[in-house]
Structures
1.
Amino acid sequence: MLIVIYGADRFFGQEAAPEPSAEVTRNASPGLDGIIASDVPADQFRDGDCLQGFTGPLEPSTVVTCETAHNAQLIGTFSIEGDAFPGPEAILAQSEDLCKSVPLDPASPLDTGWSYHFSRPSEATWQTGDRAVACFLALNEGTVRVSMLPAETSALNT
């Protein structure tokens, strides 16, 4: 099984972290369209969220039920420990290891058409306290109607 790894620094270069977005209201009882919330900023994604229109780990997406056609899922979030910024290579390696450690549903349709995407702190955001790594699994093309996470993990999102 071949899965490509892709990472994105939280905010490239020396930019500071943006102000948090206004909280998007989530629909607790989505209709037939399966939409829980539209145009959700990346900082409001929750573990297990299935995402429609995913283009990158820092971009807004529509959160839908996992039974609704989607092209990505937030499979986990982590916090890196430490006071001193360990360097971009160390952050990249830690982020990859953390994302690959997330157990996936063995019954999910995982093949070479999927890629890991993740956001991680840059040196500039580290200085403001950012230690978050967000791990996404995204289809290179097409959509699915299932969660990539085991049932007990996916239930956390409902």
2.
Amino acid sequence: MSRLAWLNGLPLEAARAELLRCCGSTRWAEGMARARPFASEAAVYSEADRLWSQTGPEDWREAMTHHPRIGDVSKLREKYKATATWSSQEQRGVAGASEEVLQGLADGNRAYEERFGFIFLVCATGKSAGEMLALLRERMNNAPDVELRVAAGEQAKITRIRLEKLLTSP
């Protein structure tokens, strides 16, 4: 059975739970679960984009609560068990970082949360810790409303990557 057929065949609540692993917005996951069956993987991605475009700040903030801080491996293992493997793969660039860069990320995360009221969210796949730190520092200059939209855009990228994993991983 293909993963698409598997997703299409899940009971509503089970599908919703699987989709919450891709994006922590309850509204988005519920919409995706109810939009099944999908005719193709492309239809999944298209509907995901469409539904995300209909969400707003409350949904974005909810989705952000489902992510560990960049570089926070202990929290990743403890709190985010359902997505820990995906998150650790996404944050692979932190693994070889220097102590200085790791401390910069820790300090930057605290300052970011104080300024914006939510965690620094970046699509970490393929980025080094240094690149993520540079992005964090750059984004600190954004106005709060602009930064919330930037973070929502990063969530959309993460969701796409996680949907691809959901549809291809056994």
3.
Amino acid sequence: MSLDSVKAFFARNAPDINVIELQQSTATVALAAEGHGVEPAQIAKTLALRVGDDVILIVTRGDARLDNKKYKARFGAKARMLGLDEVEAETGHPVGGVCPFGLVRPHSVYCDESLKAFDLVVPAAGAVNAAVHINPHRMAALIGAEWIDVSEI
């Protein structure tokens, strides 16, 4: 279902982008980079966090970590990752396939400025073996994301 919702998202919004399904798992940054022949930094990982009563998604480069000071300055709270059991319920996607496309319910989505270093990034696509190749600016436009600076490399 999750993979289908991502494919439907691209069919409606960007039919020129194909969801790539590999035979092997791409559930980690290292596996995804190897499977897609890119640097780990080009993997666009999606983090699901809770801010008060809301869930937000932050898409950042694969080799980045959240900078707690920057995050707290932007959101007024300490970063709280969703529990594994909450991720699929909130996004519709399994851990390892979480992405900002085809979400089960709307959430605020943010793209970290670190993604702008690349012409092509590789976010997951709703399954542990699926992804898309996309320009980060186009990705942000398609998902209505706000650009923010909350990571450290």
4.
Amino acid sequence: MGDTDNYTDLRGSRLTSGLSDEQVNALAGISFCRKLDDNEKLFQEGETDDALYVITSGKMAVTRNVGGGEEVTLHILQAGDLAGEMGFVGGRPHSASMRAIGSPTVCSFNRADFEALIDNDPWLVYRVMKNIVQVGHDILHRMNAQFVEMSNYISHQHGRY
């Protein structure tokens, strides 16, 4: 995994939509951006951390352990998507694992460093939190559409695959 330019990676992400260059610089100052290796795990299901992960290029597989050492892919996250929001906001354990597809670039920052920005620029914090909700909603919308498509396929096939 290699380091990348935090400002450039974050500036192109949906997380920084509506932020000034100065605000993106402040966010870049608390961020760690890196290129992952193919199949590298970003985090494991059940682990707890307080980081927000921003996929700035490439794709990541969201997977769940289904027993017997097997994992199933629930969704593919793309550049612009986020991961770890619930741990970042509320300290909850990860409900799934994240695995690199190819060599994506991911930027992360932790809750304490982010909260420290409140005193200097509360609007930065507000806009980022608003963007987290919007991106999370977009991901949920895509997942719901895939679920409906799969359900329709199964019902039209009368349960045959």
